[in-house]
Design brief:
This protein has about 325 residues and is mostly helical. It is about 45% helix and about 5% strand. Strands 1-2 form a two-stranded antiparallel sheet.
């Protein structure tokens, strides 16, 4: 039989009174999270005393692996200084116990190649210049040797491929338009003695007058001859001025450039009846040339290169495509 009598105090909604709720027992052990929070913080490392913008620098020791690497490098440096050249002196460095020299290695390698090629250089000197390309093997060697000489001595002005630099008045060596001749003998002579230099008495020499600067021609006559040169080279021109310029050209320019403008290799006078220009072929450039003239200079290489090298580079230039 169920006892329907309930003496428990009731709340407003018939629920048990909050005062009579069962409370959980107190923890018999501390909460782990609080234990971790109560652990003492590790001691702060020493500081160097350097402060920048509120940031302090710790005085932490170097890692051992780094220190050992550093010590090994010091030991290796000492051993290297003993074995190999290291300390610079007045004229050379300390030789080291092993006596090794990278410069010596290069010098010996150069000497080795020179010794192997000496027989070919000797053949270059003994063969007539005009016949240097008749021997296939000798020509092959000359082209390779001359290419190396050209790259070191000539490419600065004539370009790496010999195409010339018009802005500087350095002629192209890959066409068939030659100022002083394009035979092997002509090229050899030009390389050996140069052009308009004051160091070699055998240098090729010619000089164009400055028709405007020196008052040889009036401005009107200069305009006329410029139009005539434009007409001669097949460019757009003023027909009336060009017709008058024909007489000016005949009296002042034809002696060097020939009446038909084909040029004169004996004087180094360039052809004016084609589209190959040393300094440029537009109206303004031609007028500047007539007014102020041009005076290109090439050094003599007879004192810089040995005869075999001059012949080799002559063969190289001759075979570029424009040799006569």
């Amino acid at each position: 039989m169920v006892d329907e009598t309930d003496n428990t105090p009731k709340g407003a909604a018939g629920e048990p009174s909050p005062e009579n709720k069962v409370k959980p027992p107190e923890r018999q052990y501390p909460e782990p999270r609080k234990v971790l929070q109560r652990k003492a913080a590790p001691p702060e490392p020493a500081k160097t005393g350097h402060v920048w913008d509120g940031i302090e620098e710790y005085d932490n020791p170097m890692p051992r692996w780094w220190l050992w690497t550093f010590y090994i490098c010091i030991i290796w440096a000492v051993i290297y200084m003993i074995l190999y050249p290291a300390w610079p002196l007045v004229s050379q460095a300390t030789p080291g116990i092993l006596g090794h020299s990278t410069r010596g290695d290069v010098a010996r390698e150069i000497e080795s190649f020179e010794a192997r090629n000496e027989v070919w250089f000797q053949r270059l000197v003994e063969t007539e210049v005009a016949a240097l390309r008749d021997d296939v093997e000798l020509e092959r060697f000359a082209v390779r040797a001359g290419g190396a000489v050209f790259a070191a001595q000539c490419s600065q002005c004539h370009g790496s491929g010999g195409g010339g630099v018009q802005a500087g008045g350095f002629p192209s060596l890959v066409d068939d338009d030659w100022l002083w001749g394009g035979t092997l003998e002509d090229i050899h002579l030009t390389i050996a003695h140069g052009i308009r230099n004051e160091t070699d008495p055998m240098a090729r020499w010619s000089e164009m007058p400055a028709f405007g600067r020196d008052g040889i021609l009036e401005d009107e006559e200069i305009d006329q001859v410029v139009e005539y040169v434009l007409a001669m080279s097949g460019q757009d021109h003023d027909a009336a001025l060009a017709e008058a310029g024909a007489e000016v050209f005949e009296w002042n320019c034809a002696a060097c450039h020939m009446e038909d403008g084909s040029g004169n290799m004996d004087l180094g006078a360039p052809a004016l009846n084609n589209q190959v220009w040393l300094y440029g072929g537009d109206r303004e450039t031609i007028r500047h040339t007539v007014v102020y003239s041009r005076f290109g200079v090439m050094p003599a290489f007879a004192g810089r290169l040995r005869e075999a090298e001059i012949r080799a580079v002559a063969v190289y230039v001759h075979q570029l495509g424009g040799g006569q």
